[in-house]
């Protein structure tokens, strides 16, 4: 088998790395293949904007060390990248937020595959998260260059040093001089022994990227909140993460003059938007709090675009393969835990919303949410 080595880096917080390459042309950049430069195949430039979010389910490059491993061996990891790239190529987004990317290596590998397909207009942006257990980050691919805010095109807002994962004082007790105090939230829950626990949360997995598109300033907060919407400790942590997310929207997006869009794997249900699964109900106010991030204004600032998907039966973004047989069975769970929440001023520009169900579990256990805006 022919192999090669290539040093790569990622836009944003890129880190030079060396990848182990295989039969897939991982080492080939956007340059010509066999001496022939493929034509760009970008969607015709109209006064439209397509934004999407898609959890790639543990996207790890060949040879990358991971704690939560979907694919252990390199051939399967290469196939995974090919399939994720095919989804992006097919959806043809202007901006796509991708949770569960493991590193800048993965973002660069995905962009390189798109360039090989002739989609050279795509660029990747990555910032390391704070989830040291899973290693999951939130990345952004875009055909539009982000605005530079405070010297960077992508941001993660979290304390420099995380609070330990143990019982501790509320985050407000970290000290009056701490500039990170607003990025920490205490929460309480009752453990399995009936004892009340107090923990401190930070928003470990997120990314903030701001764009100016045809004169409109739009700020994206890509999120991957705590999982398990039926477990009390997880729900309490997710509520604390939501309070931090709302503060980031106000301080880092709205305060800079951008209309916010909050999107990603929120791991919770919207009680105001019926989904395909009519049995499971949220046990939190996560979605309502995100939509009403500013108590000082009347009504919800954000709108869940899922309400504009005509068929309730189409409103699912996650497939939990309950018996792990790799196919859809009656006992499997199909719920909507990935969401796109847009500022109400953007709602009149929405022309279409859909969830792409055109692939199975060999790609991801999530499905992309896609929103088209008409900017005419």
Could you please describe the fold and organization of this structure?
The chain has about 375 residues and is of the alpha+beta class. It has one domain: Endonuclease/exonuclease/phosphatase (Deoxyribonuclease I, Chain A), CATH 3.60.10.10. Helices cover about 15% and strands about 25% of the residues. The protein has helices at about 75-90, 105-115, 230-255, 285-290, and strands at about 5-10, 15-20, 50-55, 95-100, 125, 135-140, 185-190, 195-200, 205-215, 215-225, 260-265, 300-305, 320, 335, 340-345, 350-355, 370-375. α3 links the parallel β10 (about 215-225) and β11. α1 (about 75-90) packs across α2 (about 105-115). The longest helix is centred in the middle third of the chain and has 22 residues, at about 230-255. The chain is globular. It starts with a strand and ends with a strand. The model is unreliable at about 1-40 and about 160-175 (pLDDT under 50).
* Helix content percent band: 10-25%
Structural class: alpha+beta
Rg measurement, Å: 20 Å
Q: Outline the biggest β-sheet.
A: 6 strands, mixed
By CATH, the topology is Deoxyribonuclease I, Chain A
Question: What CATH architecture label applies?
Answer: 4-Layer Sandwich
For the residues shown, what is the average pLDDT?
A: 85
What's the SSE pattern? EEEHEHEEEEEEHEHEEEEEE
């Amino acid at each position: 088998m022919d192999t090669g080595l290539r040093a790569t880096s990622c836009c944003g917080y890129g880190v030079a790395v060396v990848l182990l390459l295989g039969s897939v042309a991982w080492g080939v950049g956007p340059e010509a293949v066999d001496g022939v430069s493929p034509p760009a195949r970008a969607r015709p430039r109209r006064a439209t904007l397509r934004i999407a979010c898609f959890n790639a389910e543990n996207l790890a490059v060949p040879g990358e060390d991971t704690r939560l491993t979907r694919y252990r061996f390199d051939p399967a990891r290469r196939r995974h990248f090919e399939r994720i790239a095919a989804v992006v190529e097919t959806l043809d987004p202007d901006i796509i937020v991708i949770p569960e990317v493991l590193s800048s290596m993965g973002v660069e590998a995905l962009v390189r595959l798109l360039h090989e397909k002739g989609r050279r207009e795509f660029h990747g942006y990555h910032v390391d998260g704070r989830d040291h257990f899973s290693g999951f980050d939130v990345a952004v691919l875009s055909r539009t260059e982000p605005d530079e805010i405070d010297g960077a095109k992508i941001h993660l807002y979290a304390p420099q040093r995380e609070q330990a994962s143990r019982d501790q004082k509320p985050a407000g007790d970290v000290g009056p001089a701490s500039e990170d105090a607003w990025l920490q939230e205490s929460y309480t829950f009752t453990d399995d022994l009936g004892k009340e626990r107090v923990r401190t949360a930070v928003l470990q997995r997120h990314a903030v990227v701001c764009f100016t598109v045809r004169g409109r300033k739009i700020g994206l907060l890509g999120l991957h909140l705590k999982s398990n919407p039926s477990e009390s400790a997880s729900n309490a942590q997710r509520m604390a993460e939501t309070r931090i997310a709302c503060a980031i929207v106000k301080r880092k997006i709205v305060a800079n003059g951008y209309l916010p869009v909050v999107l990603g794997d929120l791991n919770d249900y919207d009680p105001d938007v019926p989904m395909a699964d009519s049995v499971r109900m949220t046990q939190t106010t996560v979605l309502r709090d995100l939509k009403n991030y500013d108590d000082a204004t009347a009504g919800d600032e954000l709108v869940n675009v899922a309400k504009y998907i005509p068929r309730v039966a189409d409103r699912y973004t996650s497939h939990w393969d309950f018996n792990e047989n790799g196919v859809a069975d009656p006992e499997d769970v199909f719920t909507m835990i990935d969401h796109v929440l847009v500022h109400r001023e953007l709602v009149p520009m929405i022309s279409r919303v859909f969830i792409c169900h055109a692939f199975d579990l060999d790609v991801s256990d999530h499905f992309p949410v896609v929103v088209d805006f008409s900017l005419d």
